[in-house]
Amino acid sequence: MKPWVPFGTDRFQGKRLLWYFNVHEEEKSGDELFPAVRDDLADRIAQQQEHQLIYPARPEDAVFIHRMPETPYLEHLRKLKGSLPELICADHLQAVPNLEKFVLVPFVMSTEIEEIRRRVPGLEVIGARLEVSRKLNNKYQARRFAEQNGFRVTTGFFCRDASELAEAYQKLRDMGFNKCVVKAPYGSSGKGLKMIHDPKNFQYFLRYVQSKKKAFELLLEGWHPHKISLSTQLFISDAGVEILAVTEQMIDPNGVYKGTNFTPRLTDEEMSLCRDAMIKCGTLMRRQGYTGIAGIDSIVDVYGRFIPIVEINARLTQVTYALPLAAERMERFRHIQSKIVVFASRNDLSFEELNRDLQRVFREENGEVVIYNFCKSGDANRFDYKLFLLVSARDRDQADEMIRKIEELRQKWIFSTECVGTHDAH
Amino acid sequence: MSIDVQNDVQNDEQTKKVLGILKDVLQLPEEPPYDSNLVFYGLDSITAVNLIVDIESEFQIMFDNDDLLIDNFATVEKIVNMIRAKQGRTT
After folding, report:
1. N-terminal to C-terminal alpha carbon distance within chain B
2. Comparing C-alpha atoms, which of A25, A7, A16 is closest to residue A100?
3. Which of A39, A196, A407 is most worth mutating to test chain B (most B CB atoms within 10 A of its CB)?
4. pTM score, two decimals?
5. In angstroms, what separates the C-alpha of B87 from chain A's closest C-alpha?
6. What is the average per-residue pLDDT within A20-37?
7. Is this complex scored with an ipTM above 0.95?
8. Is the CB of residue A323 less than 8 Å from the CB of residue A246?
9. What pLDDT, in 10s, does the model give residues B6-17?
10. What is the pLDDT of residues A277-326, one digit of tens each?
């Protein structure tokens, strides 16, 4: 696999990059209007996503991980990548010897990273100052940033009490929005979003908010029916703003991210609008002091209107990790998309069993399905799994059919009383 | 729990409401089985937020932060028991 690093190596004076998935330090809203439900198994799963950093890393780089993958999965990663970067396994980043010799590439800027930067003189970090990335990651600030700079935004209102919420909801209904979304300032992959599907849903939410009897600020937006939901990956540096990829986001009805189409079909006009707006947005972010990788979410609504900034992710994103794998497959396939498969089961299934099931189902297909990240955690009651799959096909129809078969497998993995993977004797 | 007792519980008004809320929140074609682990039916930290909002509003109760563990919402029985405890009733 060709090494893929979106920035020149010459500026690092021969230093190695150290990739660090500090997802646990991502900003959380911390307001009790959105109850935070604790799920220890899910937290452990989230941390295992750090293995994906091997894809953007160059062979001479290092990736910091908290737990070494099991051997069969590690071998699979080695085959997929060609040659692996060094994997440095420890509990804390500060346990890495000679940290100052690396250039650190964190998932997101955080208080911990700022602290490490202060304590380790000479450590270079690819990322903006914390207050800059924190501001851009805040959905409310990002909306205001977009409005102030003349970008079209989604229809929505900031509300500070129940009556403002009720009024805003009525206005959105009158404008024709059947579905709305309440956004908290922080939260990714569907966290910090409350979808309002109908007036009954809204009444429940209103009653819930009133019962909390506390001051708040909430953003209520109409859910724009869209033709396509886009995510543009930018690399912003002193040298300028570079568009790394324009991809389509697959979002479920609750606003939860389900995967990325790396080969979206956009008209020339849509692509040109998107590129111009993203360069403008990146330039403005740079002027605010932002550097590093960022993902900007946009939509083209069903009326063909382009809304450039729905959300800013001033950090690495799912696209960052899988893009090198997808780029490599673009020479062989016309449609490439990632698919996140999440399930819980009583069955203790190994990577090998799940992979064997998948390969058996797709043996006769002309497409390809690859597990590029395997996450699993378990306790006495259940095992949780999160598989990141890359589906490569000749066209979207074939990919849809492959995804339908993956869903059938998922149901089998959840409900089968036996380990499905053990049936294949060949 | 005997089958008769389980049937009585399932026909209880509160349980029916909880099953209806779960069907909506988890977007299931039908109500989930009474004694199944709801995590297998899509309950996670994201869908649980909707579940909590709907249950607190419907039953006019408030969960404490310590209640907000996914395992406490993992079966219909656990949810109904928590509602009853909050309302000062026991099973």
Report:
1. 12
2. A16
3. A39
4. 0.87
5. 15
6. 77
7. no
8. no
9. 556 666 899 999
10. 999 999 999 999 999 999 999 999 999 999 999 999 999 998 989 999 99
Tokens of A90: 């420890």
Q: Which two tokens stand for residue B86?
A: 């909050």
Q: How far apart are CA B70 and CA A187, in angstroms?
A: 18
CA–CA distance, A35 with A105 (Å, rounded to integer): 31
Q: Is A255 left (phi over 0), alpha (psi -120 to 50) or beta?
A: left
Instruction: Decide if B44 and A203 are in contact by the 8 Å CB cutoff.
Output: no
Contact between chains at B53 and A414 (C-beta distance less than 8 A): no
Residue A324 CB neighbours (<10 A): 19
Q: Are A243 and A234 in contact (CB under 8 A)?
A: yes
By CB atoms closer than 10 A (0-12, 13-18, 19+), residue A48 is buried
Q: Does A272 touch chain B (CB under 8 A)?
A: no
- Residue pair A154/A224 in contact by the 8 Å Cβ criterion: yes
Compute the Cα dihedral for B2, B85, B44, A201 and give only its sign.
positive
SS3 for A296? strand
Q: What are phi and psi of B17, to 5 degrees?
A: -65, -45
Both tokens of B3, joined, read 């089958």
Contacts of B68 in chain A (CB under 8 A): 35-38
Could you say which of B40, B45, B52 has the minimum Cβ distance to residue A39? B45
Q: Which residues of A touch B37 (CB under 8 A)?
A: 344, 346, 381-382
Count of A-B CB contacts under 8 Å: 77
What's the CA angle centered on A65, arms A37 and A347, to 5 degrees?
Answer: 55
| Nearest CB neighbour to B68, from listed A38, A195, A203 | A38
Q: How many whole angstroms separate alpha carbon A172 and alpha carbon A222? A: 6
Give burial (CB, 10 Å; 0-12/13-18/19+) of A4: middle
d(CA A25, CA A188): 12
| Residue A324 near residue A1, CB atoms below 8 Å | yes
- Residue B91 near chain A (CB below 8 Å): no
Cα separation, A62 vs A95, whole angstroms: 14
